[in-house]
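A quick aside before the break. I want you to see a complete sequence-to-structure record at least once, exactly as it would be stored in a machine-readable document. Don't worry about memorizing anything.
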Amino acid sequence: MQTSQDLERKLAAIDRRGYPAYKSLRGRYDFRDFVLSIDHVQGDPFAAPSRVSLMIPAEVAGFPRELSAEPHRRVALEDTLCRRFAAEAAHVSFNVGGSGKSGLIATSRPGPEVLARSACEVTSAGITMRLEVGFPAHGRTVDARALDTMLFELIPACAERSLLADTGALAAARAAVELADDQHAVRCALKRQGLVAFVADGSILPRASGASSKPLAGALPFQAPESMALTLDLPHRGAVRGLAIRRGITLVVGGGYHGKSTLLQALQDGVYNHVAGDGRELVITDASAIKLRAEDGRPVHATDISPFITNLPDRRDTRTFTTADASGSTSQAASLMEAVEMSARVLLIDEDTSATNFMVRDALMEEVVAAEHEPITPFVERARALWEQAGVSSVIVVGSSGAFFPAADAVVHMECYRAFDITQRVRSVLAAHGMAAEAHTDGEQVSWEHVRTRRLVLDCGRSGSSQRGRRAGASRGRGGSRGRDDRRPAKLKVQGLDGFSVGEHAVDLRQVEQLVESEQTAALARMVRLVLERGLLDGTRSLPQVVELVFREVEQRGWQALDETGAPGCGLALPRPLELAACLNRWR
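That is the input. The structure line, written in tokens, reads:
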């Protein structure tokens, strides 16, 4: 390993030369208290910034091992350190001038969700912080003196103020880890007590606006109705009371603008932990919960939608249904069956974003259009079977149809953002109308288990990202290999939360609502590329097996598994396996 003095000599030697001279700086340098690594050098001052990382040994950083002893604690500590470094970097970024991105010092700036990120990794060896640095230039002439200031003064100062265990850093880390302990305890309680979700009293569910994730100032704190309340004993906060949504079928009803969708939004975001001050710190949902909606125009690949759609006029086999342009009802049926395939335990559904003919079919319509001419079996007739036969619960927001009342185990009424349990009232109304509970089930036994083991028909030979990718897949054989050949990887293009492309092919993620950061999309793009490069879609594995292989590799090799250079940089955040499956199912 080279020394910091070697780096100073290199900088002096390239001052005022052409910008490509910066390439000579790549390498690792020992700064005594940390190692600075220049992993990638940008091509010019207007290109994507250079990638630089710092590795601070554990004994220098000084954080007690107990703060990262368990996975949920480690992620909370990494998140805290990332936020601290990002705040410090923002104060010194562009302190040196120049062309283009000259002087930039930045790393990931997390939102309210606590996610595992490539920006910061904590291991037994120490803390690795990855950042973007704009190597300074005037025009395209190297300004080595300015880079010397950045690498020897500004960046080390940011690290010292944010990544060393002084009083402030220790206090922030302990607070984050203790909150993570409480959140983990709630997640364990969900499993023990048969719950879908828990919404703590005092939670602030509304957001400031549709474009802001900040809590709405002056919003009414959530309060659970007594009949649905549960008190959990958490390791740090002690007794916490809140709404317990139990497994089965739960309806959320109420007038428009009274908080139904706000509650559902909080539940769908509750698959992630949130930072203190977000208002939803203890809104915790089963991590496998998936939000379903209609997605007109999405592709569907060999999916069994026969529990909901059969007897199509064109006689297509709905047990292995494929289309490049699904309708609203077909897309929602496909998404539901894909969720079952991935062992999702909870479906979150909002009437407003669903296909009406997929959800319900009233008696008058049945009189007008005979059942034998209607290929759709609506969800209302399958919801109980899905719960009783497959163990998949549903939380459904409804505002215009009472068709789901007979199938419901619990009904929450939202009124002026207050929650009321009206389950018994609904049952009384049903009795008064001569309607029995579970009236909307057809009693038909549906085989759900085979869906979890269906095999993909895609393969790298037909769906690879380019001709180059197809040749690479063929050279590795049916099962693929861990090695890489000398071909360049397929080019990635990430479009925020909207989707991404790998080579010539794209994935549209605009309706995959539980992605919360573009860094997750960037990670998904790399995961899909990994799937294609390894030839994992070769027809011998089910989709869950493919997804499991990718996440196992990331767990074993870290973020390096997703970067061909072994230096992934900042800018990646871990998605859920469900979202990787969603990408592969929407692959065009």
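Two observations worth writing down. Residues 167-193 form the longest helix (27 residues). The chain has three domains: 2-165, 290-451, 455-585. We'll return to this after the break.
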